[in-house]
Batch of 2 targets.
Target 1
Amino acid sequence: MPDLLIVGAGPAGLSATNKAGQLGLDCVVVDENTSAGGQYYRQPPVAWANDRPSDRLLRGRAKIERATAAATFRLGCAVYGIDAEHRIWLDQDGSVERVEPACVLLATGAYDRPVAFPGWTLPGVMSAGSAQALIKSQQVRPGARAVVAGSGPFLYVVALELLHAGVHVIEVIEAATVRSALPFLPDSMRYPARLAELVGYALPLLRAGVRIRRGAMISSAGGDQRLEEVRVRPVRSGANDPPLERVIDADLLCVGYGFAASTELAQLAGCTLAWDRGLQQNVPAYDEWQATSADGVFVAGEASGLGGAPVAECEGELAAIGVARHLGRISDAGAQRMAEPIRSRLRRLRRFASLLPRLFPAPPELAELARPETIVCRCQNVTFERALEAVTHAGATTLNEVKTTTRCGMGWCQGRICGGLLPSLLAQRAGTGFDPASGFTARNPVRPVQVSSLAAIGRVEPSDHGGPGPDHP
Amino acid sequence: MDASSSPQLDRLAGPRRGSALTIDVDGEPIPCFAGETIAVAILTVRSWISQDAVRRRGLYCGIGVCFECVVAVEGVPGIRACITLVHEGMFVQTRLDAEIDA
Amino acid sequence: MDTLSKSAPACDPGQRLTADVVVIGAGIIGASCAFALARAGLAVHLVERDAPARGTSGACEGNLVLWDRPTSADLHLAMWSHQRWAELAVELPAQTGIDIEYDRKGSLMIVRDEGDVAAAQVKCAWLAAEGVPLEWLDQAGVHAAEPDLAPDIALAVHFPADAQIEPRLATAALVSAARGLGARIHNHEAVLSIESSEAATMVQTVRHRITASWVVVAAGVWTPDVLRMLGVDLQVSARKGQIAIVAGAPIKVHHKVMEASYMTTVANDETELQVAAVVEATRAGSILMGSSRLLTHPNDRRVDLEVVNRIVAKGVSLFPGLASGKVVRSYAGVRPLSPDHSPIIGPLPMAPRVVLATGHEGGGVMMGAATGDLVACLIAGRAAPVPFEPYLPSRFFSH
């Protein structure tokens, strides 16, 4: 069994792998994507020739090549379960197996925070990350006429990538304003290089004629079975006025109002969670070695709080050092020596990262958008009206209670989407004591897994105790 | 082809793709390339990936989290079209009707 | 009588309240007791430390099945309850607007092993004598009833009266109906202490001090914790059962389909893991696969994936077509098991104003409707359609 199993081959996971390799750890990396890199270093298929690869793509490729030499990679492989002893269940194309690594690093990343507005289930409306993935890994143009709506630097990154892919980017709808950012500008000025980076995304957009609307947000999406028009409105409007809407013809709407961390494996491993202000959700708490409260379970990258790829990479390296120290492969003093330069870099990176959610907050007005008939649980097509009734009629105060009477969170995605949007939506719209920090209880299996695969190893006689081990076919 | 069904995606000219192949989507042949996902193959010929009893579904998160794009492949349900690669002769079913409920 | 809704202003800490009855626990049993007591005209406070059906009742299949009852006492209560559910399936939606998804789909007991035939015959003779409708099905009959069953299955017993409800919705409907009859519902309000005298009881919660003539303890596997507040020691064991939910399997399951060995797992005192196949469809279109039994501690709700493997393997042996579906979820519930496998309903001998309603193990939904009525009869001093004696807690305190 390996010393370390790393879940997620993004920036955090890859950095951890490379560091773990240097430290001589026997390491396995698992990712359900078919190529390594995560969202940040997302790669086209290896066999596809590309005459003009981007710098980031080349950096990512080099990093992946190094990591591949340092560890066993299992791509296209889903972790469908983990328990409090951090035994891990893997599903590779229907072949399931249990592994018991000495330590686990959860580098499961984050995804675009879902926001429910009228029309958000129409084909053509997608997360900003989805459009980015289509361009980066599949080399396609995700639409002809696009609106990019949300808040924060990621919007401009995606808008620019769309532009380079030949999409007509009509507008970027940014919720933040200069005024809302003003209180944080003095702090931000201490990071001129990072600010220049942000400006570097916006300038080419402006030069290409893309309008950037600040203080505006999505209102609704419309169309006959696919996106045809996007309605936008000012974030704030007069107390009694209906918001002034504008209509934009588009066949692609990319939405990015911040991120949600993937924490279900950490929950099931028994990690203590703590409230994260930037993410507005509970994430695993960790110490100076990226160790969680669960013995042998480490966390790095966006899964434990927003920071961006540079932060994730530092955390990944620290976690690998922490694992080697935990396993007694290096001395505490040696570990401290290795960790110190990484930590000082990390401190500075984190200070800037912590400014971003304050510069670009997701506006609370987003909770005004859902109408009674708007779907909130996409898997089960549960409407907002039904979820709201669970609170106002049945008296639910937590997300688990809403699930009890509505089937929200009982579909294929196991509540990752409605679980990400309902707490704040219900807390604001139900006008009662609904808990905005509540979430669904994570349960194994965290990914759907084929019945035939499980049945093949479950066929044992009651006298065979202890269940099937990983050696079973 | 009416506006509601015209393709969502088209392929960029630059990169050389994998070998040409054909998948079967609800009995219709769809041409595509090795290395592409099921989602890309389908969305280069129409605007949606699948259809349940209530609505047409496209890509939402696009990175394997939301299961919006699930289809059945060779009869196996719950396959995420956004992260599953095509192979020659792959049989994909996109009418979900009763399958989604759980 | 006023009712407490979520939007009402919070009461002061320690506010004093009075009631006829305080019911502790808003699972299916507590909800049914609160409803039956409120319907009998009593002032009821239902106190729940979490929210309705968040414990065992929210993690079960909603079986209204008679043939798995291990004792006559269970069966008699279950038969009365069966009748009550049929009535409640009409009354509750009318009163509350909540559809409890009552479905009289019937159940099939699959008799596959030679060894099970004799036991099934004995069991069925007893059930028939007690008045449970049943019919034996041969190979053709079995496959006419369930065409997707494994072809080698050649013998089954059909129980046409068996039914299913959605247990979470049923609990919600009972709570809502009780509230409509004037009961006050205190969710997220843990009980800190209980006092009981010959004349009255007092329940101190985190927010209220409620004086009442009676306390009903319907705390399931947590009943021993509540009784310890009274200095009373009573064994109620926690037996964990897991369920796996399958989507996308191209089969139809019309009945509740269970292996005959299921009744053995219900009735015995085995401490090791036991698995028997139970397969059924839900109204939403997914398929539930059970069942497992394992003695554990009351707060062990963890899904054990190795147990899921066992359950799934058994289910596939009944319905091979399940193999191409996917397990999308699994959950576990801890069922309250009494020392003699029959429910514990009635006053504590040492504190007669404290009435227990627990120990139904996997039959809580089945026997829940009648349990509420039985408790209401006890407290109101009325006769009931079944004798009280077999359920009384005094049977565990004879010395």
Target 2
Amino acid sequence: MTPDGAPPQSIPALLALNADRFRDSPAFREKEYGIWQSWTWAEAADEVEAMALGLLALGAQNGDHVAIIGRNRPQLYLSMIAAQSVGAVPVPLYADAVGDEVAYVLDHCGARFIIAGDQEQVDKVLEVQDRLTGLERIIYLDGRGLRKYEHGHLTSFDGLKQSGRDARDRLRGELATRRAALDYDDTCVMLYTSGTTGRPKGVVLSNRNIIETSKNSAEFDHLRPDDAILAYLPMAWVGDFIFSVGQAMWTGFCVNCPESPDTMMTDLREIGPSYYFAPPRVFEQQLTSIMIRMEDASLLKQKIFHHFMAHAKKVGPRLLDGHQVGLWDRLKYRLGEILVYGPLKNTLGFSKVRVGYTAGEAIGPEMFDFYRALGINLKQLYGQTEASVFITQQKDSEVRADTVGTATPGVELKIADSGEVFYRGPGTFVEYYKNAESTASTKDAEGWVATGDAGFIEEGTGHLRIIDRAKDVGKLADGSLFAPKYVENKLKFFPDILEAVVFGNGRDEACAFINIDLTAVGNWAERNNIAYASYQELSQHRRVLEIIAGHVSEVNASLAADEMLSGCQIARFLVLHKELDADDGELTRTRKVRRGLISEKYEDLVGALYDGSREVTTETEVTYEDGRKGSIKATLVVVAGDVVPRGMKVAAE
Amino acid sequence: MADSPVMELRNITLRFGGVTAISDISFDIREGEIRAIIGPNGAGKSSMLNVISGFYHPQAGEVWFRGERRPSIKPWQVARQGVARTFQNIALFEGMSVLDNVMTGRLTHMKAGLLAQAFWRGKAEREEIENRQKAEEVIDFLEIQHIRKTPVGRLPYGLKKRVELARALAAEPKILLLDEPMAGMNVEEKEDMSRYILDVNDEFGTTVVLIEHDMGVVMDLSDRVAVMDYGRLIGDGTPAEVRGNQDVIDAYLGVAHD
């Protein structure tokens, strides 16, 4: 890649290379004041230098940890590279983390500096500052509301850069030395895993991990310097680091930051990224909103939409995979592109998507096909923080809804006897920070890492199929297989169901908690003149329960068809009176269900599912966004699901 | 000068026919403070605000602005002097977008002639860009970017209130008059609005005069509080002083609590 052939050994070195290669093309863009402002590669390198010098002026040492907290903004990405430039380790945090979580991480990594996005983040840090002995300085980006704060420990972003520029002559030599000393095996970044269980762990990723992974995955998908992405996922998430820093620096494409989290959809449409990642949830929300809006459209438009969508479902995915399609079908698809698919993709902001990925959760096959039918090259990947994201991904011509693809180049896979998936490769993490015990139990001497997921490699194709979390896979009382996540995903494929939690390990039958999706169900209620005053009331409405019961029956029917999993049919369920929320600890920050905590917290409700109650009254503590607590009371109805008796299928055969 | 009065109201009396809305009230507004006016319904608070904004002309008394007596002038002239306001019952252009509504707040800053504006040439173009920049800064400040292009009529109440504040702010006022900025809001919206009012005061040094019914909000936000009852001023001072004033307690607050 470099003129002299040696690959750059660090992100700052890649940035320097790009500043040279791509000089005046945009490296970052952010919408502010209604206009897309951009940083060219040269400007980015210049800004990083000023910040790095500023950090040196503050006394940053090799190996220091610099925490970064805030929403996706170019300056924050650049500040991570600035930290790397002085030999420090950037530690991005989740912007919506609460004070305690922030305190834990800052304390655990012993951060001396924290770069905070705005007043909200500064307040969070100040609140827990007393507990942190190591923290010396808070650097803030957006100074709004901070004017009257006591500035003893506070420095503005501009102040940091200014002090860096002022000290340029004095510290330039030092910066060059530190930058040159960066080694391929030095730490590139430390990311705290959201942790489905226990305290988050600091995953140490080296330059080798990040750069090799970025290189392999970028080449796999033929990413180009003229690609563009929208950086809107949490900066603390490994995926964002790989896409917005690793691959962006390796390939030299442009990273675009939305104006605010609320304007994401508008910004997506304006930027029209060519490389796009979203968790299934985002695709689901978009599909739901399309369908809701379609229902409001005129009859003619509805007819055209449904007619062409049916055609797209028939031939779209096959065209995308490069299969032979008849002339008439191709012509009709072209017409559909003009009338329906094109405008629809434009509205969604997907007109230019060349490579789209989804991961994190299983995606519903219908939803997956919907996007692929439109001609959007949506694929799945399987990964985790410890692997620097990529373990497996799908090749352009081998995209399927039910697998996560084949091993990423350079990655080896093996399946243990227990069914657990193991991998090793260039992206395999160095260690958990200050946690040798966990490191040893996750990564063995040969470098194989346990994913914690149970799955199998499909014979013939080599595709990996994930069934469930290995620790969640259990047995019902009669010894048959219990895979809660598998069932939950089936339930969640219904737009009306936002979240589901299935219980049953060691019990006679499987039962479920269900969260309705307020957008979809609320819209249905409006359409059917059903009045409701609150989420709680809607969730317990008789007709809502009937609809959900219908969905449960469908899931049960499909489970009954699977010999291995027919025991997992939902015998009874209840619709929860509140949305499961990360602020209450019920979901992780990446919105995965925390099964153990939920079954403890709602012990009374689980009890009611199994003791034959018809309804149950409960009181639940909730945490508001500002950290205050309140409680809600509700009476929930226990509904029985239609269970297809086991053996019936056998009888039919 | 932090403590100098930017506006003084001297012995103001305002009558509508036989009804005396305000009788012989004097108080001042200091540069950079948050000044609250409170009182029961019909006490004359909004009338007072209308006197300040030049909408009503008192039968007796004087308004002193920046050390000079202000003659009876039209509200738009008052606006030119740097006084902007929001209304108790939102007065926005419902069919126009948020951005356009905020831009109307820049009207007092537009100087290009009708013809120049129609052809959008030279000065008019420069002005438009400058005004849009200011409007966008306010939109950013109040975090309403996501509804920039949404017609105001489609917005929920709490956001409309925020848009109205945005329009007032776009005028870059020296004095901002807020008539019940938090009426009808839920706790979260009130907290947001309080935050914005404090930030405006803090960031731009804008003097804020507000009428509000929510005592918690008033006592937390204000530097000084004027209390009115039946058109008379019955108390004036810091929140703590007002809370301890017996007349005020009798008339309005009930019992002081810790």
